[in-house]
Structures are given as structure tokens and as C-alpha cells.
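Consider this one:
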Amino acid sequence: ARQPLAPSTPANADDEMNDVVVHAMHGRTMEITTSEITEKRTVLNFATFDFLGMSAALSSNTHNPVKQAAQEALDKYGCGSCGPRGFYGTVDVHLHLEKAFADFTGTADSILYSDGAS
């Protein structure tokens, strides 16, 4: 008989998740309590796109290199809703990324495409 890929979810699983209280957010982590866990517990925050914790670093440090690089990119390329060549044409960062990817994979060259998940 085939085994399930994941164990069955208990009938009251939704009720158990409704009692999670978030006390603080720290980029990729957050402090929570539940009805069963009364002491604050630090857990990974998988409900965010900030899984690298960059927003916390950006807001707390005005001389952050990521923030500086973002400002330089905005100044050079402007702001748009997407970055594929089909919309804006080929720019230097497309070529730099393809070269870096080719070097990383040990190939002569590479072509990268946007996946449309923006």
C-alpha cells in the first residue's frame, strides 16, 4: 500500500493554530506564544517575503550597504514593475548576472529568463 506523503492533519488543527499570539517581529524571526506554550518562543517567520531579514537591517542602519546599493540601482535604472528584457531591453545587470551564473555552473555562457512570479 502507498504511504501518504504527509501525516494526516488532526481535526482540531485549525483551532490549535488560531491561538498563536505574535508578540514581536524581527525580520526572519518572530516571538510567539500559544495556549500550550506560555513562555515567549522565537520561531522562523515563514509568512513573509523578508526571509533574509533585510527590512530590519535597512530600517535600523542608515548606512547599510544593501540600502545604498538599492538607491544606486534606483538612480541608474529607475523604478518599474518588472525587469525582463522583453519590456526594458537588455541592460548591463542582465549580462553581469548571466556571466556570474555561467561562471558558477562552469559553462561558457548562460541565458536567464524571468519566471513571471513578480
Q: What stands out?
A: Helices lie at 13-17, 54-60, 65-77, 85-88, 92-105.
